[in-house]
């Protein structure tokens, strides 16, 4: 084949891809595979005032609300702090391929920069390494890879400027898993991990002999959605000559109720040893008591109402809570764990065009330890976000 013909073929191929992109700005069809992409760019600016001292600049709680990082103790005269970053920005790439047997296989890879170790510093480059959020393949009802836990209902999360929103009140986990969905039901085995309190410190053991098991039932209707999920897992501590384990169980009910354009979202979760599944690990799963593990019971939840004022303006009003039933007989071992966390927030969002949003949000958060020591945070956040 001559160089001229090769060049012509390359030009035709490039034209075909450009034509596909022109017809759909987020996807291109190559052979029998559709390649799509998406994500958003987001700027966050936050003014935060803490009652019991300011967390260090490297604290993840300075980038978004993490209940376990709210300082507690005596009132402090520390000034408020201002932070600004674009680390929540994300990108995803997906494929959809029609197979010869008529079935479809899909893939998705998604990254962001929000919780990665810094690759630079705020003095010069503000470089942050990308981190994996999701990476999975789906085929014939099966999902294999890293995705949102089957125990979580992502659809119940309200629209907030904060990265998570109802942080202490929601199930929030992404991890490796194998999941099967049939009709309204889905079941999964997922990566196990135990966070255990040992002599007052958190230890992530990663030595379970079984995966975590989940089951989920979702009912969708014109009025909204209702989801019930269950979790069963093994908590373990197999270090320093100790071989301890105990069982953990949890149930969660969540959903969304539509009121025209407006909606009410909610979640209520209760269980024993839920640990890292709830509140961004505001409490551990269990306490090591000698050679035994004592699971920590907890109850958490949130309720959020979104009001659309018109086609461009909307607001979300949110209340979120977490409560741990710590064994007070073990305080000599646990130290002074979190007993309660709660937060309130309200925002005002403006979208001059469909995919561009500017917003302001106020959040008040409180955290109390078992001893009664407490602290709170007031945060005013401004954001600009463009979805592509």
Short characterization:
The protein has 388 residues and is mainly β. Helix content is 6%, strand content 55%.
Question: What are the main properties of this structure?
Answer:
22 strands; signal; 6% helix; DcaP; DcaP family trimeric outer membrane transporter; 388 residues; 55% strand; mainly beta
Describe this structure in words.
The chain contains 2 helices and 22 strands. The chain is mainly beta and 388 residues long. The strands form 2 sheets. Strands 2-4-5-6-7-8-9-12-13-14-15-18-19-20-21-22 form a 16-stranded antiparallel barrel. A hairpin with a 2-residue loop joins strand 14 (244-259) and strand 15 (262-272). Mean pLDDT is 92; it is low at 3-24.
Q: Classify the helix fraction into a percent range.
A: under 10%
Using only C-alpha atoms, the radius of gyration works out to 23 Å
Terminal residue distance: 40 Å
Task: Identify low-pLDDT runs.
Answer: 3-24
Number of helices: 2
User: What letter string, H or E per element, gives the SSE order?
Assistant: HEEEEEEEEEEEEEEEEEEEHEEE
Strand order of the largest sheet: 2-4-5-6-7-8-9-12-13-14-15-18-19-20-21-22
Topology, pairings included?
Elements: H1 3-23, E1 27-30, E2 33-50, E3 81-85, E4 90-98, E5 104-112, E6 131-139, E7 142-148, E8 174-182, E9 185-190, E10 195-198, E11 201-204, E12 212-221, E13 224-237, E14 244-259, E15 262-272, E16 286-289, E17 292-295, E18 297-308, E19 313-325, H2 331-334, E20 338-353, E21 356-369, E22 374-387
Parallel strand pairs: 10-16
Antiparallel strand pairs: 1-2, 2-3, 2-4, 2-22, 4-5, 5-6, 6-7, 7-8, 8-9, 9-12, 10-11, 12-13, 13-14, 14-15, 15-18, 16-17, 18-19, 19-20, 20-21, 21-22
């Amino acid at each position: 084949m001559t160089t001229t013909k090769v060049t012509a073929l390359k030009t035709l191929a490039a034209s075909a891809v450009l034509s596909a992109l022109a017809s759909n700005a987020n996807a291109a069809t190559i052979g029998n595979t559709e390649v799509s992409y998406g994500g958003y760019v987001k700027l966050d600016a936050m003014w935060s005032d803490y009652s019991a001292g300011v967390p260090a600049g490297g604290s993840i709680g300075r980038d978004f609300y993490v209940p376990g990082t709210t300082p507690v103790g005596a009132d402090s005269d520390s000034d408020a702090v201002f932070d600004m970053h674009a680390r929540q920005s994300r990108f995803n790439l997906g494929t959809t391929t029609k197979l010869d047997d008529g079935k479809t296989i899909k893939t998705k890879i998604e990254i962001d920069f929000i919780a990665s170790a810094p690759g630079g510093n705020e003095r010069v480059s503000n470089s942050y390494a990308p981190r994996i959020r999701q990476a999975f393949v789906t085929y014939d009802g099966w999902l294999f890879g890293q995705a949102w836990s089957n125990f979580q209902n992502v659809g119940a999360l309200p629209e907030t400027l904060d990265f998570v929103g109802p942080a202490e009140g929601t199930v929030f986990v992404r991890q490796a898993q194998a999941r099967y969905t049939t009709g309204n039901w889905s079941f999964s085995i997922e990566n196990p991990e135990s966070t255990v309190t040992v002599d007052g410190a958190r230890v992530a053991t990663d030595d379970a002999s079984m995966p975590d098991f989940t089951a989920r039932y979702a009912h969708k209707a014109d009025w909204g959605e209702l989801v019930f999920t269950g979790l069963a897992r093994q908590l373990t501590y197999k270090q320093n000559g100790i071989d301890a384990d105990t069982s953990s169980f949890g149930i969660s009910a969540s959903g969304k109720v539509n009121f025209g354009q407006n909606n009410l979202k909610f979640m209520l979760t209760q269980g024993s040893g839920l640990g890292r599944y709830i509140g961004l690990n505001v409490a551990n799963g269990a306490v090591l008591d000698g050679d035994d593990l004592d699971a920590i019971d907890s109850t958490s939840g949130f309720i959020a109402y979104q009001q659309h004022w018109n086609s461009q303006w909307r607001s979300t009003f949110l209340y979120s809570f977490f409560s741990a039933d710590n064994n007070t007989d073990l305080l000599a071992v646990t130290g002074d764990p979190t007993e309660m966390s709660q937060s309130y927030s309200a925002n005002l969002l403006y979208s001059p065009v469909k995919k561009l949003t500017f917003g302001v949000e106020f959040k008040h958060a409180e955290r109390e330890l078992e001893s009664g020591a407490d602290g709170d945070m007031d945060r005013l956040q401004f954001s600009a976000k463009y979805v592509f």
